[in-house]
Structure formats: C-alpha cells, structure tokens
Amino acid sequence: MTIIPLSLYIHIPWCVRKCPYCDFNSHQMPDEIPEADYIEALLSDLESELPHIWGRPIESIFIGGGTPSLFSAEGIDALLRGLRERLPLRPTMEITLEANPGTFEQERFSAYREAGINRLSIGIQSYNAGHLKALGRIHNAEEAINAAHIAKQAGFDNFNLDLMHGLPQQTPEQAMHDLQKAISFAPTHISWYQLTIEKNTLFHHSPPLLPDDEHLWQIQKQGQSLLADAGYTQYEVSAYAQKNRQCIHNINYWEFGDYLGIGAGAHGKITQPDGTITRHQKYRQPARYTKEALQGKARSATTTLEKQDKIFEFMLNTLRLKEGFNKVAFERRTGLPLSKIDSNIKQATHQGLLQQTRNDQYCATKQGWFFLNNLIEIFL
C-alpha cells in the first residue's frame, strides 16, 4: 500500500481558566502543574504507540491544548529530547507550540526556540479589551499586541495568529480593526474564524448576543478581501497564509493523512498496511490519563472505520480545502475506488455545490463554499 503521511499531536490539557466558548479537553490548572510526571506519561504513551507506526517517518509535530506555554522551557526541552530518542525527527521538521499572550516571556520563548520549537500559534482572538473580556480571555489588549513582537525577538520567523470574528456585539468595523492589527505584525499565517456556540460550553448554557447574519456576511467578505490584499491566500475555510507558509501539520489533517495523538483526551488516526483505518482516543482526565499511560494503557477507545465512515470523513476534511481533492488522493487515503461516490459527485455537481476543475480534481464551487455543510451531507 501507499504510505500515508504521519504527524504527531501532543495535548497539554491545562489552562489558567476555562474560556466560555471552549469545548476542547482543557482543565483549570492546579496550584502546581505535575509537569515532570505528565511528560513521563507522554513518552510512555508514545512508546506504547510505536508498534502501530514502525518504520514510518513523522512529518510534523503540533503541541496543543489547553495552554502548552504554561509548561516551562525546561519541560518542553525534556519532552522534545524524549521524542528524538524514540523517533527519527528531521532537523527542519515543522514543530508548532500553541501559546497564549498571557504566558509570553521573551526569555522563555527564546528557550523554546533553542529546544527545537520552530513555529508558534498564538491565541490572540481579539485586540479589543471589551471583546477579550466577553470571551473570558486572561490577557489584555496590550499583551496581545506585545505577543507578536516577543515572538519575533525570540527568533521565530514562522508564527500564526489566531483571531475570532462574529464576537458578542462586534461590529464589522471592530472586526476589521482586529484583522488589520494582526496583519500589521506580518505573521506568516493567520487563522481567522467565526465564533460558534458549541455544546458543553458556558456560552451554550448562557448564549451571548452575537451579530446577525447580515453583519456576519459583511465581516466575512470584507475580511477575506483585506487578507487577500495583504498577500494572505486562503487555502482552507479559516486558514490564510503567506506564500509557501501553510501549516504542514493541519494540511495533513485536512488531506485525511494519519496522525498519532498522545496526551489527555488526544485523538489519533492510523492507516494499517492492509488499508484498515483505526481511530484512537486517550483518557480525558489528566490524572487518570497519567496513571494509565505510565502503565502503557493510555487508550480509552479504539474504533475501526467502515467504508461509509471513510468516505464521509475524507469529504468532511478535504472539502474544507480550497483545492479540494483528486481521484488519486481519494483512492490512496480511503482504499476505495472513486466510482464508489460517482452518484454523490453527480448530485453535488447538479446542485451547483461541487465542480471538477482539472483532470480528476474536485472542489467546492463558490456556492458550495458558502453552503459547505450541505455539500458534505451529500456524502453521508
């Protein structure tokens, strides 16, 4: 079989405080984070997973959370050294660390850089004090502004700024001000996405007043135009990058590549030599995860994808990309012939949601891009 690209995701589950919109597996940090024990558990978790990926190179590493930048530089260094002892890592590999402005210190981030982190993803969300307060963020506008400066001073020439729009009572003018401010720091990548209310969040139980559809549409159109004029190409629903600066890790995810997940609540997807695709999940509670991982039993669940699951999940991911997918990618990643979805493709094309751009390349039309959920549902 064709070797599927493989990435590594590492989850650090603690935050200073849980944000009201967040549905990720994050937990308020204790008085003292058990950093050393957790790193030992992560490496034990990895060792238990190695038999499932023997001989396969890692294409990228992403350390997410939670707030990974709550870990000390010494802890991140110990983690990366442990990874290098167990995996063949290329010196130029993309290694991303998520960070929040409230945890930025130049000395610490210089040490992260020396340890091997070469890309930062900074959770700004907004530069507006009122909106930061409404989102429950612990940093202020000044810290948000300083974050990019500190990243550059620490030696990072590749970093992402995370921004939300459609915030409680946000006007189009305020949304554009946030975006213009982010662009002014010349990050290589901007993740710009609309706030959505997810289940199991405080916002779901007490919904804030959000902009109406007309204002959301205005924000979306103005923002995309602003980003394009500044040299940022949209390559995914909420991802914009300077030339050749797309996030390698996320592209692999959206192209239905494989990824190993270690850490509390982490998910993974592995394609076996016979084409079988399995998904795994780790225990969510940090204490339970640490205990089980140290015993080599970090997985809380493993499932095997059926044929229809493969098709739907492939479309769920690849149709988020501006370029969509092609015949070769579909057949290599799912192990199924494209003929399996001929009728779905015809239906989506007939409805004006999908188009064939060249040879066997398929992507959403302009209409399909705006009604992406409807397009994806055709492949359920």
CATH homologous superfamily designation of the largest domain: Aldolase class I
Largest sheet: 9 strands, mixed
Radius of gyration (Å): 21 Å
The structure class reads alpha/beta
Quote the CATH topology of the largest domain.
TIM Barrel
Q: Given the structure, what is the number of helices?
A: 15
User: What share of the residues lie within helices?
Assistant: 25-40%
Number of strand elements: 17
Q: Globular, elongated, flat, extended or rod-shaped: what is the shape?
A: globular
CATH uppermost class of the largest domain: Alpha Beta
Spatial arrangement of strands, main beta sheet? 9-10-8-7-6-5-4-1-11
Beta-strand residue fraction: 15-25%
Domain count, please report it: 2
Mean pLDDT: 92
The span between the termini is 26 Å
CATH architecture of the largest domain: Alpha-Beta Barrel
Low-confidence stretches: none
Short overview:
The protein is α/β, with parallel strands linked by helices and 380 residues long. The protein has 2 domains: 6-252, TIM Barrel; 322-377, Arc Repressor Mutant, subunit A (Orthogonal Bundle).
